[in-house]
From TrEMBL:
Residue sites binding Ca(2+) per the record: 292, 295
Name by which UniProt lists this protein: Penicillin amidase
Listed Gene3D superfamilies: 1.10.1400.10, 2.30.120.10, Glutamine Phosphoribosylpyrophosphate, subunit 1, domain 1, Penicillin Amidohydrolase, domain 1
UniProt-annotated catalytic positions: 219 (nucleophile)
Organism: Naumannella cuiyingiana
CDD domains, sorted: Ntn_PGA_like
Record key words, sorted: Calcium, Hydrolase, Metal-binding, Zymogen
BP terms from Gene Ontology: antibiotic biosynthetic process
One Pfam entry name: Penicil_amidase
Sequence similarity: Belongs to the peptidase S45 family.
SUPFAM superfamilies per the UniProt record, alphabetical: N-terminal nucleophile aminohydrolases (Ntn hydrolases)
A single GO molecular function term of this UniProt record: penicillin amidase activity
Length: 718
């Protein structure tokens, strides 16, 4: 979209810096939200279109039959009606923000459309406030445990309860915590096993088309208290990890009016800064909470799907038929059904059995969007933590700082369950669903912890045996381990040193294996060659040859620990669900390497050797891809070689259950906030502010991002 469309006079006024990042200056709050929507649409209108079509199951209208798996799933999730209800429930000021933001989007769209519309022959439909809610939810629907529980159900169906349990070890004690101090299902009948296997393949097909790529989200955040900085004022540091979208998931903007002045990164479709922002008095950032706030239920139906079995008998099923239009093909009819537990997301009720989804974001009217408006008025850490009580989903580790304090709380809602220990896979609906919500007062929070800093890297928040169940599938503990090492090592932190720490590529997991390799030698043949290489290694994944050998070793070890029978059962399963199982197996082996069978260990070391040495960054590359792909003729941003892996602070994860080592998860927004010197603050994304492939700001931040640089961030001053 032409940058000449920038508004330069009147209210709102939109100014842009060298990277094209907008500052919206408005005389009224109404104008501020209008200007934010206008600037967002100038930059990212195609992203608006992409997100609303994903959310409403209309992507097939753009790309044809390839979009059908994702569209079927999106229709079944059934976000539209709930999103409309959420808007109706908003406080007047919140709803006004959504309405004015939408008006700005539509005003920009009326002036110019990005090239994708002409290429696909599309007509822009007016943007509506409820679509912002639906777009936000579709970006987070698979960040719960849906696909992990489905994958575990496939494993139980394929290899049995006991064998599946052996591949799902309990979390080890003694792992790093943010806040310092079960049972399995019985055997599945054939019909349920077949349903679960087919359901897993449905999610996998949708994921391969780019649908819900946010399933593997992570992040780092740390706040350094005043007593541990050179300036005597806090620092807030964060980087968010997701699959890299083109355009990037996050959009940088500052919006200033008499009522508020905020700079941060947000979703362009949303009026507010739910994840990252600064308002001159304080700043905030989040990591993904990895919370267990979704469940899948095996529903029983009769009368061709007209009724579902409940604890006290049979109840009517809400259902309707919708049409999915397909570019270049015949339309498809789909039945949308809902039981007392939630929408039917897999299977056909008419067959007598299907899976429904309970999710805290959709099982009742969601009033969390009022938090977007109230949080930007806060003036202290204590106040900001308090207003997060209204947040629902996604569950986040919410970290903030002001001129003197740092704070943390787990924000979001967790369900209370009739049978919490047994819900790590799809469970029979008749066994009981949710009974309420975990009281907000039971969720952890703290201000100014004793170490003088606090951090989270998607690790466990509290001991798994204390307090409410938060997560079953906490990611690797190694990033938080390294963050803690570095933060504890000094008490004179500056913004520049914090930025440099974001680029650290030392893996404490790799160091453990280096130590184990030093302990077990010598071996023979290729196993000895790999062992000797790793034994002499520092664990820094900038080191080309040992880093490449280590990655191949991890993959071979994961495959051996999983085993051929389980791998066969999981063929066609959701990729992220399989990855979680493999990562947990490797993590447990990494934490207790002496317990790994010697034959398995030697075999993995031998498989990792290559006569011709590889450089890790030759194998390990980020390959950003436009949403329409090469078929539409739009240029992708350039490939970027990256150091690190999923266990390093500079995160650049790859899939253990894939062939190559392409980066599948990395930093999509990096930020440092300096309360002593706001001008020293910075931000950057892996791409550009514009979604238009013909725009000079399409990928101009990718180079600085890859080099570890930050762009100046216009943090408001108090």
């Amino acid at each position: 979209m032409s940058r000449s469309a920038t508004r330069t006079g009147g209210s709102p006024r939109i100014e842009r810096d060298r990277a094209g990042i907008a500052t919206v200056i408005a005389a009224t709050e109404d104008d501020a939200w209008f200007g934010m929507g206008y600037a967002a649409a100038q930059d990212r209108l195609w992203q608006f279109e992409y997100d609303r079509r994903r959310a409403t199951g209309r992507w097939s209208e753009v790309i044809g039959a390839a979009g059908l798996p994702g569209d079927r799933l999106a229709r079944r999730i059934d976000l539209a009606d709930g999103a409309r209800a959420d808007v109706e429930a908003m406080a007047p000021a919140t709803r006004r923000a959504f309405e004015r933001h939408a008006a700005g989007v539509n005003a920009a769209a009326a002036e110019d459309l990005p090239p994708e519309y002409a290429e696909r022959g599309l007509v822009f439909e007016p943007w509506e406030p409820w679509q912002a809610v639906a777009a936000f939810k579709i970006r987070h629907v698979l960040m719960g445990d849906w696909q992990f529980k489905l994958t575990r159900g496939m494993l139980i169906a394929g290899i049995g309860v006991e064998a599946a349990a052996a591949l799902d070890p309990p979390l080890l004690p003694g792992l790093a915590l943010t806040v310092p101090p079960g049972a399995v299902q019985g055997p599945l009948d054939d019909a349920t096993a077949e349903l679960i296997m087919a359901s897993g393949r449905e999610v996998a097909e949708a994921a391969e088309l780019g649908f819900l790529a946010e399933a593997g989200a992570g992040s780092n955040v740390w706040a350094i208290g005043a007593e541990r900085t050179a300036s005597g004022k806090p620092l807030l540091v964060n980087d968010s990890h997701r699959a890299v979208d083109v355009p990037n998931a996050y959009w940088q903007v500052r919006v200033s009016c008499p009522e508020f002045d905020v700079a941060g990164a947000t979703f362009p479709t949303l009026p507010g800064w739910p994840h990252f922002g600064a308002n001159g008095h304080l700043a905030w950032a989040i990591t993904h909470g990895s919370a267990d706030n979704q469940d899948l239920f095996v529903e029983e139906f009769r009368d061709a799907g007209a009724e579902s079995r409940e604890a006290d008998g049979w109840a009517p099923v809400q259902s309707r038929t919708e049409r999915i239009a397909v570019r270049g093909g015949a339309e498809e009819l789909i039945t949308i059904a809902r039981t007392a537990r939630g929408p039917v997301v897999h299977g056909d009720p008419a067959s007598g059995r299907a899976l429904s989804l309970s999710w805290v974001a959709t099982d009742r009217v969601c009033r969390q969007f009022d938090v977007l408006r109230t949080m930007i008025d806060c003036r202290s850490v204590a106040e900001l933590l308090e207003v997060q009580a209204g947040w629902v989903d996604p569950v986040n580790n919410f970290v903030c700082a002001d001129q003197r304090d740092i704070g943390y709380r787990l924000r979001g809602e967790l369900p209370e369950r009739a049978q919490p220990a047994g819900m790590s896979a799809p469970v029979p609906a008749r066994a009981g669903g949710w009974t309420g919500r975990v009281p907000e007062s039971d969720l952890p929070r703290m201000i100014n912890p004793e170490p003088g800093w606090l951090a989270n890297a998607n690790n466990l928040v509290v001991d798994a045996n204390s307090g409410p169940l938060i997560t079953r599938y906490a990611p690797s503990p190694f990033r938080i381990e390294r963050i803690g090492e570095l933060l504890a090592a000094r008490a004179d932190w500056t913004a520049e040193e914090a930025r440099a720490m974001q680029l650290d590529t030392v893996s404490t997991a790799a160091r453990r294996w280096a130590a184990e390799c030093a302990r077990i030698g010598p071996l023979e043949g290729d196993a000895e060659r790999t062992r000797a290489l790793l034994a002499a290694w520092s664990g820094d994944l900038r080191d080309g040859r040992p880093a490449a050998a280590y990655a191949r070793f991890r993959r071979a070890l994961a495959a051996s620990l999983l085993g051929e029978e389980a791998a066969g059962a999981l063929r066609g399963a959701p990729a992220d669900g399989v990855a979680v199982i493999m990562v947990r197996l490797v993590n447990r082996a990494t934490l207790r390497p002496a317990e790994v069978d010697r034959e398995v260990l030697v075999g993995a070391l031998a498989a990792a050797w290559r006569t011709d040495p590889d450089d890790w960054t030759d194998l390990h590359r980020l390959r950003p891809t436009h949403t329409l792909g090469a078929s539409a003729g739009f240029a992708d941003p350039p490939e970027v070689p990256l150091p690190g892996d999923g266990d390093t602070i500079r995160a650049a994860g790859y899939a253990l259950n894939a062939d190559g080592f392409d980066v599948t998860l990395t930093t999509v927004y990096r930020q440092v906030i300096d309360f002593a010197d706001p001008a020293a603050s910075g931000w950057v994304i892996p791409g550009g502010i514009s979604a238009d492939p013909t725009d000079p700001h399409y990928a101009d931040q990718l180079g600085p991002w890859a080099r570890g640089e930050l762009l100046p961030m216009p943090v408001p001053e108090s």
